[in-house]
Design a protein that fits this description.
The structure holds two protein chains of two kinds. Chain A has seven helices and no strands. By secondary structure, chain A is mainly α. Chain B has one domain: Winged helix-like DNA-binding domain superfamily/Winged helix DNA-binding domain (Arc Repressor Mutant, subunit A, Orthogonal Bundle). Classes of the chains: A mainly alpha, B alpha+beta.
Chain lengths: ~200, ~100
């Protein structure tokens, strides 16, 4: 039927527009895992604070433990994201590291690296109070820029992170909980939504 | 009906050419290799369709060197963009759908 041919044409056009300009190998499960790593990190950080209050650990010990923890969460999250993206790309027979993937990384790198250096300088100044809000806001900004080269939903995750960061700045007393909400809960919610919408067949 | 069919462009009445235009309409240029990867066609097939689109002045070609390797980059022209837009609109009218939001 002629109509079916036109319908197929439209579908083909949309599919190619998307696939050629967006990084579609991003998996929802990466978000879920990143969220759980973040929550596990919060639990361990709370435990470390407990050790400090009972006098078992010194201030320096807690400090280095937290730095180590932050890196562990980051490396695990990135590693998991890469692994799931690689698998998704293979399953669909796309190349993972294609042009949109490179564009997405390049676009998000500016706010991400700025935020990284900014946070490092805060640590150097001992200005820990601003650390959590800064991380959330810069991470959110990098997500909103990255979203132009991947699933549109990433944009809303970015907005949620920015908002959480601003609230954390407004009420600085609950830094750990804002962190858990932004990096933990929102990642899990977003990941599940993504998974249900795009990945599950 | 007739005026809609008039906007259905014969130059796009082929999967590969339609694919090329779709890719070029949302990307600031694409190399020959990238088009080949995305469309999954042979060199010869792709080259002949690109030539046809080039002849209609729907795409422009730019040859550069990356190191010693020649690289051919294709871009959509203003004429091509307009023609492709009319073609899509005609397709959408024919299938009776309202203009998609995306």
């Amino acid at each position: 039927m002629k109509n079916q041919k036109y319908l197929d044409d439209i579908r083909e056009i949309k599919e190619l527009m998307n696939r050629s300009s967006k990084f579609l190998s991003l998996s929802g499960l990466s978000g879920v895992f990143a969220g759980f790593y973040a929550l596990a990190g919060v639990v361990m950080a709370e435990w470390a604070f407990g050790q400090y209050h009972t006098g078992a650990w010194t201030r320096e010990q807690v400090f280095f433990f937290l730095i180590f923890l932050a890196f562990a969460v980051l490396v695990l999250s990135l590693g998991t994201a890469l692994w799931f993206s690689y698998r998704k790309a293979q399953k669909r027979q796309y190349k993972m590291w294609d042009v949109p993937a490179r564009r997405m990384v390049a676009a998000s790198l500016v706010p991400l690296l700025t935020g990284g250096l900014w946070s490092l300088i805060l640590v150097l100044h001992g200005d820990y109070g601003l650390l959590v809000p800064s991380m959330l806001v810069f991470y959110g900004l990098s997500l909103t820029t990255a979203s132009y080269y991947t699933y549109g939903m990433v944009y809303y995750l970015g907005l949620a992170e920015i908002l959480t960061g601003l609230l954390a700045l407004l009420w600085p007393g609950y830094a750990v909980w804002w962190w858990a909400l932004g990096f933990g809960v929102f990642h899990i919610l977003y990941g599940l939504l993504m998974y249900v919408k795009f990945d599950r067949h | 009906m007739e005026h809609i069919l008039k906007n259905i462009n014969k130059a796009f009445d082929n999967r590969v050419r339609l694919g090329i235009m779709s890719i070029l309409s949302v990307n600031d240029g694409a190399t020959f290799t990238r088009l080949k990867e995305l469309l999954g066609v042979t060199d010869g097939n792709l080259a002949s369709h690109l030539k046809a689109l080039e002849k209609e002045q729907y795409v422009s070609v730019e040859k550069t060197f990356v190191g010693r390797k020649p690289q051919t980059t294709y871009r959509i022209t203003q004429t091509g963009r307009e023609a492709f837009k009319r073609h899509i609109e005609a397709l959408e009218k024919l299938i009776g759908g309202s203009r998609g939001k995306e």
